[in-house]
Write a structure and sequence with these properties.
Length: about 290
């Protein structure tokens, strides 16, 4: 029996701070800096490294909502500083320090159980690589041995599996990266101050994309960014389709496994946030 598609989003949101910890934890940040990476290089290079030393257009296409101008200062220059293999090894070494420190106060059985559930789902996802380039690159990496790193790797796989599906759903609707970015900010305004500057779009590009979305009837015609009822209906349909496309992974652990993983994820995320290695993200669903 197939699980309720909404469960896939519930699990992903519960576990989201685990991925964010790779960006905020001092240990992986220091490990990547020690390689000589600087500026935006650590973010773009660490996330793209499983693809190999790819050119900037590949990163633009697989990351989807970053402008070419945001990627250009980091890729391909990062590959002249450190190889993708060394970047992945440094990030993993940093997480091998960060996660045990954050999880020190948790019940000893919690992380191994969460890791086993997440791995089962991730391995099921690996049976469905079609149309998921970034996920497939991660799927080709070797699994680590320690439970906290298994959890880290499994969650990364599941995140990119979902992310590639999300991009497929948006692309099928004829939505560009900047348009998707604007819709997301209109739905979750708290993300605007953090997200808009990091994506590198010019004011002119931003205004043109807003005009295109208003022409579709998805954004209010004046004032601050706000979705119309039609825009919100479309957005939720995309979220539902994204949930549905992630079902092949989570079906492997069933409803009970998804519920359990979400419960463990909430505890794990709270520990990461309390340690300062992650942050609370605004809800993407009402």
């Amino acid at each position: 029996m197939t699980i309720d598609r909404a469960l896939t989003g519930v699990v992903q949101r519960a576990m989201a701070p685990l991925w964010i910890s790779g960006l905020r934890s001092p240990e992986p940040v220091a490990a990547l800096a020690a390689l000589g990476l600087e500026g935006r290089q650590p973010y773009f290079a660490a996330r793209a490294a499983p693809l190999g030393a790819v050119p900037a257009p590949v990163v633009v296409s697989t990351f989807f909502n970053f402008s070419p101008a945001a990627v250009a200062p980091a890729i391909p220059s990062a590959w002249a500083v450190a190889s993708p293999t060394d970047i992945l090894a440094a990030q993993l070494a940093g997480m091998n320090e960060a996660l045990p420190a954050a999880f020190a106060g948790l019940d000893a059985s919690l992380v191994p159980e969460a890791a086993a559930l997440a791995r089962s789902a991730a391995e099921a996802a690996c049976e469905h690589p079609e149309g998921r380039p970034l996920f497939s690159a991660y799927a080709a990496l070797e699994w680590p041995d320690d439970a906290h790193l298994v959890l880290w790797h499994a969650h990364y796989l599941l995140r990119e599996f979902r992310g590639d599906g999300h991009i497929a759903a948006l692309t099928a609707e004829g939505i560009t990266g900047i348009e998707a970015h604007i819709v997301h900010i209109a739905a979750v305004p708290d993300l605007g101050p953090m997200y808009r500057p990091s994506r590198g779009w010019t004011d002119a590009q931003w205004d043109d994309a807003i005009d295109a979305l208003r022409a579709r009837g998805w954004l209010a015609q004046a004032g601050d960014l706000a979705l119309t009822p039609a825009g919100n209906e479309w957005r939720m349909a995309i979220e539902d389709r994204t949930d549905e496309l992630a079902v092949p992974a989570y079906d492997a652990i069933g409803t009970d496994g998804c519920t359990r993983l979400a419960e463990h994820g909430a505890v794990i995320s709270a520990a990461l946030i309390a340690s300062g290695r992650a942050m609370v993200m605004p809800a993407v669903r009402p």
